[in-house]
Amino acid sequence: MKQKVKTTGHTDLDAVVVGAGFTGLYMLHRLQKLGFSARIFESAPNVGGTWYWNRYPGARCDIESMQYSYQFSEDLQQEWRWKERYASQPEILEYIEHVADRFDLKKNITFETKVESAEFDETASNWVIKTDRDEWVRARYFIMGVGCLSAPIRPEFDGANLFKGEVYQTSVWPEHEVDFKGKRVGIIGAGSSAVQSVPLMAQEVDHLYVFQRTPNFVVPAQNRELSDEEVDSIKSDYKSFRAEAYSGLTAFLFPRHNQSVFDLSPTERKKRFDEQWEIGGLPFLGAFNDLLLDEDANKEVTNYWRERIGQIVHDPKVADLLTPNEYFGCKRLCAGTDYYETFNRENVTLVDVSKSSIKRLTSAGLETKSSEYALDMIIYATGFDAMTGSVTRINIAGMGGQSIQEKWEAGPLTYLGLSVSGFPNMFNLVSAGSPSVLATMVTGAEQHGDWVADCLEYMRTRGYSRIEATEAAESQWSAEVNQAGENSLRSKCDSWYVGSNVKGKARVFAPYIGGWPPYVKKCKAVADNDYDGFTLN
Ligand code: NAP
Predict the structure, then answer these.
(1) Which H/E stretch holds residue 185?
(2) Can you name the residues that pair with 81 across neighbouring β-strands?
(3) How far, in Å, from the CA of 234 to the mean position of ligand 1?
(4) Which atom of ligand 1 is nearest to the CA of 195?
(5) Is residue 234 left, alpha or beta, with left meaning phi > 0 and alpha meaning psi from -120 to 50?
(6) pTM recorded for the entire structure
(7) Which of 346, 266, 361 is nearest to 304 (CA)?
(8) Dihedral sign, CA of 29, 31, 37, 42?
(9) Rounded average pLDDT per 10-residue block, the chain, 537 residues
(10) How many other CB atoms are found less than 10 A from the CB of residue 5?
């Protein structure tokens, strides 16, 4: 592709950041502190990123609130009081708003403005960034904080435009209240978003149909209010608490038993699983050390789940349909509240669309290959073009006009996740090629924000205007990311981690699963070594 950018004009800004979620906001904070001119473009009318859009009933974080929060400011973490073990979407949004106000970030955010394209100007070594408001900006650095789960997807069913009822999508839920009362509602999908919303909707609707193609592992979240004692205990030495989390595999803390499933007798094993079930949430993954590595160990969890569901769900056929048949932990573990119990309600029907798939929508509802369902409302809980979609939906053109879509056709190629060869002065934060979704996103936002801020400062003090990952460094890192993915059972089933939920997308396990500490160490070593693997000039 030919270079189309005009090379006249001036650099308006040092940096454009895309997205005002946790990642973009921290990046802006660092840039502001260092005196760089920077602006965030954000498509939503307010801060929050994914937490702005995913406001469906029951939306809640699956990482504990005391950990799913910034740690860069001791004052901030002391003054904020989280209410629950797992924060609800409104509370997280309130927190992000508080952070934006407290650190005076909104003055440099343009809301309701989408970045549509970014083109690298090779002569001027800067980016020309265009928005959907016919605005364009030149910036030395183009930094994306666009999130891993922020490019919603919706299957295109025949007849979708014929349906006369209300239509919603969990990932772009409206701000106004949705009235479910007296309505026949169909929800398509059985991932985390459905798992969280189904039990609440069921209490309101006339009838709820859950169209499930693949059952998920749903562990009870065991959410509860946080007591003053536990909050105070963490706050009395938040620094050590954070340091301990930081040294762990996923940058968040939960007890992990360093034992194989087969170190315990079947009775002791069941007792351990029961204990983990009672603890609830993602900590279930810490029940044993070989659950994600050994197929036989993994099968023990499936057996346990089958037994558990059988005890909760009264109808054996429904219980059977809800029982997962894939590796445990392969898809992201869902944390729910009363999810399985909800299928005992008379006003809830589980519809298996694995064989009798959804054929089309009609004016009155939905048709599968074998039945028709009259509906007043259809809700898509059908997920995201995860990891790369939020990047590739922007028309990004690097050196020689190469597009990011071309570059990533066979899967994401990055150096440290942060940088892409052929796309100088561009940074992609907390996304493909870095731990991102496998660690705490907020901690990832701080680690990447610090790394990029330090790098920009390094360049400024030495008079550099261009940084680009070498092809060699990129290919070595990408091979390491892919290898780590292949070693894990997590890459062995269809999921958004591997991109199989998007038609035509290359199947690659996108996040780096080699662990948080080695990743952080590698990033530090690169910076300490004068940005080894990058060309600077
Ligand atoms: P998801 O896990 O990708 O689930 C999408 C669901 O839609 C799947 O059950 C999928 O079935 C189904 N689906 C897609 N197309 C379909 C079709 N044509 N017919 C029938 N079913 C179809 O998406 P999500 O639930 O939004 O969650 C995505 C991720 O977001 C989570 O894994 C999590 O990381 C994050 N999230 C977290 C929380 C939380 O707990 N904090 C809450 C929500 C989301 P198949 O599985 O068969 O493809």
Answers:
(1) strand 184-188
(2) none
(3) 33
(4) 25
(5) alpha
(6) 0.96
(7) 266
(8) negative
(9) 42 93 98 98 98 98 97 98 98 98 98 97 96 92 98 97 98 97 98 98 98 98 98 98 96 94 97 98 96 94 98 98 95 97 98 97 97 98 98 98 98 98 98 97 98 98 98 98 92 95 96 97 98 98
(10) 18
Residue from 192, 322, 325, 373 to probe ligand 1 pocket by mutation (most atoms less than 8 Å from CB): 192
Query: Going by C-beta distance under 8 Å and a sequence separation of 6 or more, which residues neighbour residue 47?
Result: 20, 21, 25, 96, 97, 100, 105, 106, 109
Q: Which residue has the tokens 């934060």?
A: 429
Distance CA 196, CA 507 (A): 27
Sign of CA dihedral 457, 459, 465, 469: negative
Nearest C-alpha to atom 41 of ligand 1 is from which residue? Answer: 61
3-state helix, strand, coil in the chain (%, to 5): 35, 20, 45
Residue nearest to atom 46 of ligand 1 (CA): 214
Residue 337 has a CB neighbour count (10 Å cut-off) of: 19
335 lines ligand 1 (CB under 6 A): yes
